[in-house]
């Protein structure tokens, strides 16, 4: 199952790209790690508190505009995450597309990305926030209900 999230930021695409890829900024909104910015580059992210470690490879790449890698480790089913940046006036539009295996909790995955996008927005504003569990729980319940009603598309 796939879902797309769109956000408009009042920041230039280069600034958002830096937040998506700079090892110094990744821990502020996602997890400590590193992304080799090239096709075939290594992606390593370590969510130490949850025990999740991402060990992946960049599968699509256009400097400053497109980054795709799998969310998981070796042997996991494919869960691509695709980041697309487009200029939009003084800012930019970010589209995040995720794909989750049908037998997994899609509502939980979508809610997790909703929370991390909130953290990304805060990072871009120079504010550090912890993972917003209340937002995550509310979004998870909403997405699960929408999935049950076959009306799933995350809102911006």
Automatic annotation (TrEMBL):
It comes from the Bacteria. Pfam families: AHSA1. Residues 10-125 form the Activator of Hsp90 ATPase homologue 1/2-like C-terminal domain. This is Polyketide cyclase. Gene3D superfamilies: 3.30.530.20. It comes from Phenylobacterium kunshanense. InterPro entries: ASHA1/2-like_C (IPR013538), START-like_dom_sf (IPR023393). Belongs to the AHA1 family. Coiled coil: none annotated.
């Amino acid at each position: 199952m796939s879902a797309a999230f769109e956000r408009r930021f009042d920041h230039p695409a280069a600034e958002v790209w830096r937040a998506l890829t700079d090892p110094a900024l990744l821990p502020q909104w996602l997890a400590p790690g590193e992304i080799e910015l090239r096709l075939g580059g290594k992606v390593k992210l370590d969510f130490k508190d949850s025990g999740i470690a991402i060990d992946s490879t960049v599968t699509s790449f256009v400097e400053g505009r497109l980054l795709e890698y799998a969310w998981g480790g070796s042997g996991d089913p494919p869960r691509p995450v695709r980041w697309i940046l487009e200029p939009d006036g003084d800012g930019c539009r970010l589209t995040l597309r995720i794909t989750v295996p049908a037998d997994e909790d899609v509502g939980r995955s979508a809610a997790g990305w909703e929370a991390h996008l909130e953290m990304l927005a805060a990072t871009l504003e120079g504010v550090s926030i912890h993972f917003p569990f209340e937002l995550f729980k509310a979004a998870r319940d909403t997405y699960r209900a929408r999935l049950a009603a076959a009306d799933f598309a995350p809102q911006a």
